[in-house]
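To the wet lab folks,

You asked to see what we're planning to order before we commit. Fair enough. Below is the target structure as tokens, and below that is the sequence we designed to fit it. If anything looks off to you, flag it before the synthesis order goes out.
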């Protein structure tokens, strides 16, 4: 029996306010490494600890890639990530799905690779704070999804891996991270363009999954 659902945040519950901040950061920094490698390194630097301010955070990111942290680069990075947060929009099926899960006494957690001041303000803005039991954000937990974030959530919520399903839009982080922790993952494929055995096209379908 499913007792809890672990949701990814960006691209799952809330739509990005701008085109992929990670891909834009990749272009701004102009690093000569494969994109997948860039994402892993960038997230590890930017999203696994709390920084005093964004300028310092992105300066550290530049240094990790041996890119000179000149003001124009830092300002561009800050602009992309701020726009993503400020222009974010909530998916039409998000609030209703969360409310119905709460009515079913299903625990809800958000598992997100994100820097500080990125998820919490958006949760509050869209009235989602009271619908979520706990949030596990990488900068607070000190680990990414593939490095123990799901395991931390299980431990802190006192749940067994068989009691939980995970839902997210990324196979590489959401699904693989969940499965690494022994949690069954479901890919959210809103456009229906990806081949994957366990997937849903809308969040509403999650309501059926918890009843199975």
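Sequence we intend to order:
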């Amino acid at each position: 029996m499913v007792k809890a659902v672990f949701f990814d945040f960006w691209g799952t519950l809330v739509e990005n306010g701008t085109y992929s901040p990670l891909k834009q950061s990749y272009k701004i920094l102009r690093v000569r490494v494969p994109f997948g490698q860039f994402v892993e390194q960038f997230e590890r630097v930017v999203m696994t600890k709390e920084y005093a301010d964004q300028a310092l955070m992105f300066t550290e990111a530049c240094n990790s890639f041996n890119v000179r942290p000149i003001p124009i680069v830092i300002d561009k990075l800050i602009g992309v990530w701020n726009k993503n947060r400020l222009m974010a929009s909530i998916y039409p099926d998000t609030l209703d799905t969360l409310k119905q899960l709460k009515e079913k006494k299903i625990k809800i957690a958000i598992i997100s690779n994100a820097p500080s001041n990125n998820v919490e303000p958006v949760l509050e803005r869209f009235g989602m704070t009271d619908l979520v039991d706990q949030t596990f954000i990488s900068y607070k937990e000190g680990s990414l999804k593939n490095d123990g974030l799901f395991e931390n959530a299980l431990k802190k919520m006192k749940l067994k891996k068989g009691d939980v399903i995970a839902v997210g839009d990324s196979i590489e982080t959401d699904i693989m991270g969940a499965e690494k922790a022994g949690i069954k993952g479901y890919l959210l494929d809103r456009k229906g363009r990806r081949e994957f055995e366990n997937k849903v096209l809308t969040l509403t379908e999650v309501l059926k999954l918890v009843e199975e």
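Structural context that might help your review: Strands lie at 4-7, 14-15, 89-90, 107-112, 134-137, 164-168, 184-188, 199-200. Residues 71-86 form the longest helix (16 residues).

Thanks,
Computational group
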